[in-house]
Amino acid sequence: MSTLPRSPKNSRFITQKRPHSDFDAGINSSTAWTEHLEATGSLSDDEPEEEDGEHRQARALYNFEGKTEFRELSVEAGDELEVVKEDLADGWSLVKNVAGEIGLLPRTYYTFTADFTTAPEVSLSGFTTHHQRDASSSTITPRGSLRTEEIVPQNTGEWRAAFPSFRQSLLGGKSLNRFSTFVTSGAEEWVLKGSADSEAVLAAQAAAEAASHQRFSTADEDDSEEAEEERNRLNRLGLGEADHHFVDAGHNWKTKLPPFQVLVHSPSKRTSTLSGSFTIYNVTALFHPPPTDNDSSPGSPTRVTVYRRFSHFVILHTALTRRLPGIALPPLPEKQYAGRFSEDFVEARRGDLERYISRIVRHPVARYAEVVTFFLGCESDTEWKRLVPQHLAMPAAGPSFYARVFHPDFNVDADEASDAVERFDTHTRAVGKGVQGLRNIFGRVRDARIEMSKAERLLSYSLLSLITSQTLASAPVTGASVEEEEYNVKGKGLLNEDGAWCWREGCSDCLKLTNAMQKTSEVLQSVADLYDDHARRTQLSTHEALKGVAHPSSLYQGVITTHRSTLSRYSQATTNHTDDEMASRCETVLNTTMAEMETYHTQKTEDFSTLAKDHLDGEIAFYEQVLSRLKTARRGFDEPQFTQLGAQARQASIYERELEHPRLTPPPLSQPAPHVFDAAPMRPVSVAIQEGMGMLLGPSSRGSVFGKFW
């Protein structure tokens, strides 16, 4: 039976506010960038125009590896910067480096080069402070910058482990690896302090449900609409039913909505005066009705079709990442800046987007998220433009996500949870390695199909050359001297007047044989076409689908990290000093991570079964077509077809003209677009050109994505 987590006994966990965090692993940068665009009035993906006014000079304090998809700027400690706009949302600033590249940088990662104050130094006996950032009593405090309660690390954020007591006394036991998923997802803050709005969430939900029941009891239509609007408002605020998640006793996410299917299809090119050319896709959600007792066959599905472009998928992914930090979401396909309107790329992008949204709606929690419902159901452009800023402006869930996860009490065994994560980590790494090998082998299988196509075509040409006595260009000739070959070409008696392969005139037997062999040659050409098409279409689809099961270790690395870190906190809470409240919160996080592991287990079974069945069905259909054509050629040598072939003179084959220039050099085989986690991800052509020029002209400065556009 599902119960609520243990309620905190101390009221301080209810009234305590969530501490301010200056940096949230990059996911808050989208809000800062949106705020900057709204201020400048630009919605373009191009580099923003500089704002009027004098820019303040600054210098980077720490290394920062920015994420290009969030418009962040990569800097190294000591880089000279100009602060274009200091105060953006969620602790970000808009800065420019010496190369003129503009991007987002956390406000605490730089200091102004003038007008700073000096605070008393902190003496730490036996503690080395070189290359480490001090606590709130820092020796150098930038004027006008925010003081934070947390220590922002340099590079990876790992501190020396020689002084655990000092570290814990400063941070209250909080981890110093600011880039760890355990920290950035809000799991650590939830484990240590809980969530200030957990009780407010329950109270708001109870009030909303009570009001809804009261309104519905009056059977008044206007009140029903008000109740629906109130539920929608609570959902947008993260207080509604869509933000409450339940874990069953077997560590399975409780499904609120039945699975449904989403198709991304019919891409078309559009042009806008503001954003230029772009590709728009039809996104159709198919909701199949459950079968009834009277009729076992399901009825026709309900279809909802909307039009979305790639930037809309970016909005969906950004909002989901912020609202569901404890969920292993699939990566969004990378953006392409060159050749993005070619037919092959548009089809590859369509397939990647369909696989992405399909994995979203397969997840038992993500598919009923408010932003997913909005993405798949909003058909009005006006409504879309009105509500998108609201979804992007919603704060990151952080510890509030775990406050809204409900599970049976005492649903975790520490030893079992520790063993499960080690086995899961080992298994996903092995699966990833095996799938990478499978993808490579499958590419070679497709190449072999192309070679078989060339072999069948060459066999067809050779057979046609034999019965017509026409020389096949570039074909090896063995067993005949040059004199014999010239004699055969120039001599008579090669073909009779009916075009039969015979020196006798009016030979009906040779006429029937010649026509049957010519039909065989033409059938072999069609078989060659089947091999070529099978490798380029059917097998390419399977090759692309293998990306959906690749790199599970990278996808679930955040879940694994959070699980292990929570186990460590759980051990501290139950052994070193008993803390039932912290142990209860650790159980909530462990229930979440183990539910994610169970979700992967279920999806892995479905994915590999579907892949194997689709591959076998494709091979069966392919060989059935080949077999059908070969049987047709074979029947030409049996009666009555064989006799009918001698009823009229032979007509020249359409492939005779190709004997001088045979089609034995097919175009290159299209390869699937790389996975986001592949070692060599897809890159814009302009980036490759820029890097190539950098090798000739000297090293280029590290910068944001804007500098790589040109």
How would you explain this protein's 3D organization?
With 710 residues, the protein is of the alpha+beta class. The protein folds into 4 domains: 12-178, SH3 type barrels (Roll); 198-243; 246-411, Phox-like domain (PX Domain, 2-Layer Sandwich), CATH 3.30.1520.10; 430-658, Arfaptin homology (AH) domain/BAR domain (Substrate Binding Domain Of Dnak, Chain:A, Domain 2). Helices cover 46% and strands 9% of the residues. It has 20 helices and 12 strands. It has helices spanning 12-15, 29-40, 164-171, 181-184, 187-193, 198-217, 221-236, 310-323, 343-362, 370-377, 381-393, 399-403, 414-468, 482-490, 508-545, 552-555, 557-576, 580-635, 641-644, 685-697, and strands at 56-60, 80-85, 92-97, 102-106, 110-112, 116-118, 140-142, 245-246, 261-272, 276-287, 302-309, 405-406. The strands form 4 sheets. A 5-stranded antiparallel beta sheet has the order 4-3-2-1-5, covered by helices on one side. A 3-stranded antiparallel beta sheet has the order 9-10-11. α6 packs antiparallel against α7 (221-236), α13 (414-468) packs antiparallel against α15 and α15 runs antiparallel to α18. The chain is elongated. The two termini are 59 Å apart. Mean pLDDT is 76; it is low at 1-29, 40-52, 116-178, 208-222 and 680-710.
Q: Spatial order of the strands in the main sheet? A: 4-3-2-1-5
The CATH architecture of the largest domain can be given as Up-down Bundle
Radius of gyration from the CA trace? 33 Å
Distance between the termini: 59 Å
* Sheet/helix structural class: alpha+beta
CATH fourth-tier homologous superfamily of the largest domain: Arfaptin homology (AH) domain/BAR domain
Q: At the first level of CATH, what is the class of the largest domain?
A: Mainly Alpha
| Helix proportion range | 40-55%
Instruction: Note the main sheet.
Output: 5 strands, antiparallel
- Compute the number of helices: 20
Unreliable stretches covering 5 or more consecutive residues: 1-29, 40-52, 116-178, 208-222, 680-710
Mean pLDDT: 76
How many domain modules? 4
Percent of residues in beta strands?
5-15%
Q: Shape from CA axes?
A: elongated
Q: Remind me, CATH topology of the largest domain?
A: Substrate Binding Domain Of Dnak, Chain:A, Domain 2
Number of strands: 12
Biased composition (Acidic residues): 219-229
InterPro entries: AH/BAR_dom_sf, PX_dom, PX_dom_sf, SH3-like_dom_sf, SH3_domain, Sorting_nexin_WASP-bd-dom
GO biological process, one term: endosomal transport
Biased composition (Polar residues): 1-14
